[in-house]
Amino acid sequence: MPEAFDSPPKDASAAPAGPGAPGRRRPVRAFFGKLFSTDLAKTPGRIKLVALVFLALYAVIAGKLVWFGLHQEQAQEAKRGGGDVIAAARPDILDRNGEVLATDIKVMSVFAEPRRIIDKDEAVELLTAVLPDIDANDLRKRLGTRKGFIWVKRAITPKQQQEVYRLGLPGVGFLPENKRVYPNGPVAAHVLGFANLDGVGISGLEKYIDGQGLADLHGAGFSLAPENLAPITSSLDLKATYAVRDELAKGIAKFKAKSGGAVILDVNTGEVVAMASLPDYDPNTPADALDPNHINRISVGVYEMGSTFKAISVAMALDQGKVNLNSRVDARDSLRYGRFTIHDFHAQHRMLTVPEVFTYSSNIGAARLALMVGVEGHKAFLRKMGQLTRLHTELPETADPLVPKNWGELNTMTIAFGQGLNVSPLQAMMAVGALSNGGLLVNPTFLKRDAAAAQQGAPRVVKAETSESLRYLMRLNAEIGSAKKANVEGYFVGGKTGTADKIVHGHYSNDRVFTTFMALMPADKPKYLILTLMDEPQGLPETAGYRTAAWNSGSVTGKIIERAGPLLGLPPRFELPTQPFPLLAKLGYGMANTPQTGGREH
Amino acid sequence: MVRFLNIVAVLALVGSAIYAYSIKYETIFHAERIVKLKHEIKAEQDEIAMLRAEWAHLSRPERVQSLADKFLDLQPVALRQIVSADSVPEKTTRADQIGDKLGALGLADPTNTPSAIATGAPATPAAPR
User: Fold this and answer.
1) What is the pLDDT of residues A33-69, one digit of tens each?
2) Domains of chain A, with CATH numbers?
3) What is the ipTM for the molecules in this complex?
4) How close B88 comes to chain A (CA, Å)?
5) Integer Rg of chain A from CA
6) Within a domain: residue B38?
7) Rounded to whole angstroms, what are the CA distances from A49 to A45, A57, A153?
8) Closest-approach residue (CA) in chain B for A186
9) FRET label pair with B30: which of A484, A548, B46, B56, CA 20 to 30 Å apart?
10) In chain A, which among 49-108 make CB contacts under 8 A with chain B?
11) Closest alpha carbon within chain A to B79
């Protein structure tokens, strides 16, 4: 029936001629005929109709938009509105051999949307029954707020998750979160620092990582997966760090010291290979870190380093050509300056050679050496050695050294033997490291690096000969001087003790001391500088009541060397090196290369 | 002819529609599998991270030391016990006195016990039939 498809009005009037067409269909055909007519006269009306329909359609859409704008969907902003963020992923921290020091694990956290909870009291009751360690009152208060999102408990166990899930509470759900864990507990805690529950680094290397742009990325809304973050390789050696901490803890217990610290520093690269500061804390329970007794004594504490500073004074006098190794210094009598008198602990009452000043740890000798250089020269040298300004490492916890305001001759004299200038132990190590590694001041670092990178920008602070002289003096001190306790056979150790009287109520106390010990191993090819410090160690019957550094810090350092040396891959040598100090031999100090023996107990 | 072409066109249309739908559903199927596999990979990675943390925790020096103190009869290594590879003695010719004596006894030589095949007799008496 082709006629049905095209039905012009003209045909419609002619249609009745169709055979057999029922009469009642005619009005229908007429209606459709009119509807689909192509009469041009109808066009304007039709256009208006179409325009009206579209207008109505767009009005509906616009109205809906306005309605959406006025009635915001609350659920969308729920998580942000709570002011809480999901803990962000952080890169792993590895030790220098790839052992894990800090890593992220996935844990489930329970959250609640207070608006969607029907019976708040019931919810509180059920949740506290399953999670007994949350405070019911606090939870009730927080559920009562108009917030869209609150955390009920972060980092729950899978069993707890199962139990909370079984409660079937509406408006309570789970979110996977990253939790920072420190598998080794308190070992290396002060270096690692810790991150809080939101994955923000609070202290230590964790804070340093955030400062390197990680926090900015998180802030910009990038959700980084742990596998996208390259791990940070620290300079620490986990096993050596543990050994150092273990020996230090034993030493502190034995000598009943209040606190202590120990560091192994690679003098060529500036890497801190091991570090412990006791008492410490477990970064897995970060609340303990806030205890002021748990500070990092190596980089935050500033102390009068005592006789270990004599190394710097002697090196200064040698480097500036004021004395040589054969020069003699007057130590016949106590040194008077105004109303002050400087005594020697091991007074010899004679002229001492420069090596004797070092091995007898003569205060008078050190003071006289510093006076030869003069106040300004002394100050300039210490500034060059980085002792007067704050030391910056990756760790954010640092402290300014306490420098005397009016630095006169007396200050120079006392600072020469380590009293009157408070520096952080790591700072002092940097200086002694520079004096022993050939004369380059390498900034300590807690990240792994190689010697070439470390020495690239390192300024030369003393001549190579001075450095070798100092190594010789330290070695001599271990052979015949006060560092004998740490002279571990096989490692050609050199060392210097330091015992500083503590200031109590503005006076130097006689019975409270701060002892330090610096050891260099091996002294001919310097690799590691080891520092041990102890606060208020006590004399013991087996140390004949002495509380000086050789007995406590020195013996602990010896144990650390013995235990950590093999761990660090340093092969022991039992044949003494034939020519340990070639530069000194060239300068005419052949005696430096013959090992000294003797029972001179200093 | 035109009718034939129409039929062909309709069939082609139906065929291509079926093909397009099948491709679409296959794509959805694969996309879902990818999502599922990604989830599984994520779960595995989380598990690996967890296990690494656990391994690091269990093999921490503190624990190893306390276990060694408790169960092993060992002492700390003395420095004298560490020697370089050069000081290990050269490998000598194999000198096995006991082995030589055993060899001299001739136990390894073939013995003249009658073989099973030669006699065909089992070692144990056969069960009576």
Assistant:
1) 888 877 888 888 899 999 999 999 999 999 999 998 8
2) 81-233 (3.90.1310.10), 239-285+299-593 (3.40.710.10)
3) 0.72
4) 15
5) 39
6) yes
7) 6, 12, 61
8) B62
9) B46
10) 99-100, 103-106
11) A572
